[in-house]
Amino acid sequence: MNMPLFCKVAGDTTIPAEVDVAIIGGGIIGASAALELAERGLRVALCEKGEIGGEQSSRNWGWVRRMGRDVAEVPLAMQSRMLWREMRQRVGADVGYTESGILYVASNAREMAGHEAWYEKTRHFGMEPRLLSAAEVAVMAPGAGRKFVGGLYTSGDGRAEPGVATAAIAEAARARGAVILTQCAVRGVETKAGAVSGVVTERGVIQCGAVLLASGAWTRLFAGNLGINFKQLHVRATVARIEHSGPAPEFAIGGTDFAFRRRQDGGYSVAVRNSNVVPLTIDNFKLMFDFLPNLRHSWRELQIRFGAHFFQNLQIPRHWGMDETTPFERTRINGDAPYGTLDTQALHNLIRAYPAFTGAKITRSWSGVIDVTPNALPVISPAPLQGLFIASGFSGHGFGIGPAAGRLAAELITGQATSTDAAPFRYAA
Ligand SMILES: Cc1cc2nc3c(=O)[nH]c(=O)nc-3n(C[C@H](O)[C@H](O)[C@H](O)COP(=O)(O)OP(=O)(O)OC[C@H]3O[C@@H](n4cnc5c(N)ncnc54)[C@H](O)[C@@H]3O)c2cc1C
After folding, report:
1. Which residue's CA is the closest to the ligand 1 atom numbered 33?
2. What pTM was computed for the model?
3. 328 lines ligand 1 (CB under 6 A)
């Protein structure tokens, strides 16, 4: 059975006059923060311009992993794993979380050296990843159509269902008193005496003492209207769901040019790994020097495209008044059809790597816009406006670490001691 791309949450009809915290963006980060804050007894409004989980949070691969994470992000990924483990009980719904393992296979010595380097850097965390020899990979994932030189396997990493998780978390927040507002874009923030005093939505003003900007790929645009230069760019990634009835491992596998994981609906989500499309915009030029150091390592994974998108993007207003229709109301869901032939390429690459998938059929494909920061780490931090907090820029990792990121954001907003180190995620101008 084909699962929907995302489960639709019916939003609340009445907007509250006042809450403690208004959250801008109903992706997994905003929903997780809403749940954390509502559990602490705060009055919360979660404002989503389109549908809960309609953008990146439903369009991703669904991998929940600690393996391969930046060392600074590992503690957040470890805490998130604990939160995923208890998610079913906490939200009262099956979000498909399964610790079925993730295997990275290395096609050459360079890739294997990368896995070894990561393994050495993160040994002190006491996690369970294992470096595998070529022979061990062949035993673990037999039937490969090419020779792998080794691999990295983490038995306790796994997956959850992007199509249901964010909606379930938002509904759990609502059950604890949060107000969920869909089709409700936030146009801007009101201030009094230099501090946040409310948000202006397309349906009216909500007074509040704190605002969390968890607006995914839209954060740079929103923050820019407040005079905040949030350094963020976009890449577009394509995923396909395939139907396959033959043998295949329960764990997910990622290789140089392919990735797949089993889905709860019986199919598999597949993608071309390390192949993201960058539709050039003016921001790519403005932020070139910020992104250059990281680009040196990742340029091989990027397909840079210049075309109509550049000129369409130039038409988007960067500044607007609170009584104007904003870009957020003009694009309710940012996410689209697959890019070019990347969906069929994904299946082709998978079959080349594992011929057992021959005959599998694509039943649906889509793309999503991933928001990236210069160092590929998210910003979870107070912003340079009193009462405003940012949790954004998850750089392709936010689904797995979403629950812990939501917790960290809630701790910062409430002034609690943080349960993971917030320093690596601090906003820098
Ligand atoms: C193809 C793909 C594969 C990925 N694979 C993985 C993976 O396997 N594992 C992993 O951990 N991560 C993965 N990611 C990354 C992960 O999906 C994201 O990092 C994560 O979902 C980000 O969550 P978010 O809440 O920040 O953003 P989003 O889910 O994009 O949510 C932001 C929300 O804010 C709303 N919004 C924006 N502006 C406004 C406004 N002004 N008013 C109201 N609402 C607004 C938007 O409509 C949107 O719904 C992948 C992403 C993609 C696209």
Report:
1. 25
2. 0.98
3. yes
Alpha-carbon gap, residue 273 to 260, rounded angstroms = 9
Residue whose C-alpha is closest to residue 169's, from 353, 402, 5:
402
Query: Using 50, 70 and 90 to split pLDDT, how confident is the model at 268?
Result: very high
pLDDT in tens, 225-248: 999 999 999 999 999 999 999 889
Cα dihedral 359, 365, 371, 374 sign: positive
Query: What radius of gyration, in Å, describes the C-alpha atoms of the chain?
Result: 21
CA–CA gap between residue 212 and residue 419 (Å, rounded)? 19
pLDDT digit string (tens) for 277-297? 999 999 999 999 999 988 877
What pLDDT shows up at residue 185?
Answer: 98
Q: Is 349 within 8 Å of 380 (Cβ atoms)?
A: no
Would you say the CB of residue 58 lies under 6 angstroms from ligand 1?
no
Domain residue extents for the chain: 21-101+156-425
370 lines ligand 1 (CB under 6 A): yes
Residue 217 Cα to ligand 1 middle (Å): 7
CA 370 / ligand 1 centre spacing (Å): 7
Hey, what CATH topology would domain 21-101+156-425 get?
FAD/NAD(P)-binding domain (3.50.50)
